[in-house]
Amino acid sequence: MSDGEPARLLLVDDHAIVRAGYRHLLEQQDRFTVIGEAATADEAYAMFRQHRPDVVITDLAMPGSSGLDAIQRILRADAAARVLVFSMHVSSDLALAALRAGALGYVTKSSPPDVLLRAIADVLAGRNVLSPDIAQALALARLSGQRRPLEDLTPREFDVLCMLISTASEQEIAQRLHLSVKTIHNLHYQIKSKLDVASDIELTRLAISWGLDLAPSSLYAVPK
């Protein structure tokens, strides 16, 4: 981005009406311009490679691979990429997973518009940023003094966990993440081992108790 030119943004959200609303908000600012929109992680990755935006603003719950996968793929393509998560979930665990995957910030959709605009500017400058509700959730989690088992999961394991609790099968997850069924089976076992649960029912109950009901199964439906 040259001096004086607006920052180039890529919007990633599976709801077109949501993208339209935020495009309108962002393009009212002289300092920003939206150069593309994507509805899936695959589209986000392709558009990033094509347009090289200054900031990627992405949701987490999308059809197929989640926003966490999109973040990791984008950062593998360009380690200097700047990503801001924009999610409906006020979850310290999701925020930590996003930051560990490489995002610079996490803002909730319930935040006032000015919080989002400031967060984009911070991420553009290479600074980490959290919306106030997420910052509070993280502070409270740290004050408890207890390490959350979810912190032991890798970003890939966290992504698979979110798909598992959306009732996706190992075969479906393998297809969406372009991995072998054996790899997903091994990740499934590792997740249950790290979280110390014996069954998928226990795994789902535990994850939902932590606010990780990332998306209903319909969001992860395989396109016909």
What report would you give on this structure?
This protein has 224 residues and is an alpha/beta fold. It has two domains: 136 residues, Response regulator (Rossmann fold, 3-Layer(aba) Sandwich); 72 residues, Orthogonal Bundle (Arc Repressor Mutant, subunit A). Helix content is 50%, strand content 12%. It has ten helices and six strands. It has a six-stranded parallel beta sheet with strand order 2-1-3-4-5-6, with helices on both faces. Helix 3 links the parallel strand 3 and strand 4. Helix 2 runs parallel beside helix 3. The chain is globular, with a radius of gyration of 17 Å. The C terminus is likely disordered.
Quick recap:
This protein is α/β, with parallel strands linked by helices and 224 residues long. The chain has helices spanning 16-27, 41-51, 67-77, 92-101, 113-124, 132-143, 155-164, 170-177, 181-195, 200-209, and strands at 7-12, 32-38, 55-58, 83-87, 105-108, 129-130. Helix 4 (92-101) links the parallel strand 4 (83-87) and strand 5 (105-108).
